[in-house]
Design goal:
Keywords: Signal, Transport. This protein is of the alpha/beta class and 456 residues long. Helices cover 48% and strands 13% of the residues. The chain has two domains: 182 residues, D-Maltodextrin-Binding Protein, domain 2; 201 residues, D-Maltodextrin-Binding Protein, domain 2 (3-Layer(aba) Sandwich). The strands form five sheets. It has a five-stranded mixed β-sheet with strand order 2-1-3-14-6. Strands 8-11-7-12 form a four-stranded mixed β-sheet.
Length: 456
């Protein structure tokens, strides 16, 4: 703010002989008070803007701050405060904020956490906001990521960025093994895995499926027609024929020596081992495109690629991951927060965000407008895969059940459980985790009504 010249009527303190130092201090004090008053006036005008508190996790929370100045220029009446949450502490911080009535206005929430915050009653249904935002067309979004935010018949979340899993593969090793066409279904994948194993010998493998990760098994399981949980999420459905078919295929890859029975902590790192040919297939997410480009030697720059995930009977589904925007019910600035959601959901802004982070846009129009995304041979298979991505089960307990998937899968690979036993054990563990959910859902209405009335 520009300081105006002092008006003629202003009287400076008189400086008497011998008191110059004290008078100088008085002058400086008066000047400081005037300056403080002027700055306070400027600050007061700035504070009249609506303040939107936005929480975002991990690296994305750092990068998104570069987009905020443009938003504030377009919306001079809004100021955005971004808080970056560490991924490992974000869930606890959000629950603590909910308990203490300290949630922000808008947040980028992990897709598997949405059901929990819906059950807590913390999220605002978004249908009224979407109705006045025709540019946010649900049909422009990949269906699986969009459906992650639809719970109990209401839209509670708008995807910000998406991820899913598919195989990274070594072109040169597949060519040496005589694999002329990328496998499209499990039977063709079996043939390719067997051919690679014959080519690389006993000390190397065809595929890495780290036993300390549940995602490889989950992405194979989501391809089956039956749900992973049944009866409205009350019970596990792991003894279904489809899931047992998944378990059998997963176990076969270890039994035949196509995959090493190791965690990713038991190898130097996944990029170096991929580069030296320890395995030829690795099922993982889009962030590894940048990692492989950076970490593999120049001699292998054209020796690897990505491909859609084969399914039981053709190109298969995979899990829709990522983060989505939500508005919290307790927010007093939901309208201003929604303007931020609209801005960050704009296809051109999503293209810029992809360039900053490598995260994939959830809108088809962003892919169509971005030459880099449309032409990149490494991202194109993800574009194909996202059309078939499916939400994980939308219950608050899902992440706990997913960890049991990893534990039981590892026991099966070690030979402690058969496929039948592993399926039964998963159902037993899932049913125990879901016991409270069944009690909540199945209470008679007469029992639930007094509790609801008391809460009000």
């Amino acid at each position: 703010m520009r300081l105006e010249r002092r008006p003629a009527s202003f009287s400076a303190p008189r400086i008497e002989a011998g008191r110059g130092a004290g008078a100088g201090k008085a002058l400086r004090r008066v000047a400081a008070l005037l300056l403080a008053g002027l700055l306070a006036a400027c600050t007061g005008r700035a504070d009249e803007r609506a303040v939107v508190r936005f929480w975002a996790m991990g690296y994305e929370g750092e990068v998104v701050t570069r987009l905020i100045p443009e938003f504030e220029r377009l919306h001079p009446g809004i100021r955005v405060e971004v808080q970056q949450l560490p991924v490992t502490a974000a869930h606890e911080k959000l629950l603590t904020a909910f308990a203490g009535d300290g949630l922000p206005d808008v947040c980028a929430l992990g897709n598997t956490w949405l059901a929990e915050f819906v059950e807590l009653g913390a999220l605002t249904p978004l249908e009224p906001y979407l109705a006045r935002s025709p540019a946010l067309d649900p049909g422009d979004y990949f269906p699986g990521p969009w459906q992650t935010g639809v719970l109990d018949g209401h839209v509670y979340a708008v995807p910000w960025y998406v991820e899913t899993r598919l195989p990274f593969y070594r072109k040169d090793i597949l060519a040496a093994a005589g694999v002329e066409r990328l496998p499209r279904d499990w039977q063709e994948w079996r043939a390719a895995l067997a051919a690679v194993k014959r080519e690389v010998g006993p000390q190397r493998y065809a595929i890495l499926l780290p036993l300390n990760e549940y995602e490889p098994l989950l992405n194979l399981a989501i391809q089956q027609p039956g749900p992973l949980l049944r009866d409205g999420g009350r019970y596990g459905n792991f003894r279904s024929a489809g899931f047992k078919r998944t378990l059998a295929f997963y176990k076969e890859m270890f039994d035949r020596g196509w995959a090493p029975p190791v965690s990713n902590n038991q190898i130097s790192n996944v990029w170096d081992e991929f580069g030296r040919g320890y395995y030829a297939f690795y099922v993982n997410g889009p962030w590894n495109i940048a990692e492989f480009r950076k970490r593999l030697p120049p001699s292998l720059a054209d020796a690897w690629g990505t491909m859609p995930l084969p399914g039981p009977d053709g190109p298969g589904a995979s899990v829709a991951g990522g983060a989505s925007f939500v508005l919290f019910r307790a927010s007093r600035n939901r309208d201003a927060a929604w303007k931020l959601v609209e801005f960050l959901s704009d296809p051109q802004v999503q293209i810029r965000f992809h360039g900053m982070t490598g995260n994939l846009p959830p809108r088809r129009s962003a892919w169509a407008r971005s030459g880099a995304l449309a032409q990149d041979p490494y991202t194109r298979p993800f574009r194909d895969q996202l059309e078939r991505a499916k939400p994980a089960p939308k219950v608050p307990e899902w992440e706990r059940i997913a960890q049991e998937l990893r534990i039981v899968g590892e026991r099966m690979v070690a030979g402690h459980l058969t496929v039948e036993q592993a399926a039964a054990e998963l159902d037993r563990r899932a049913d125990a985790i879901l016991e409270k959910r069944r009690w909540m859902l199945d209470r008679p209405a007469a029992e639930a009504a007094p509790a609801a009335g008391g809460a009000r």
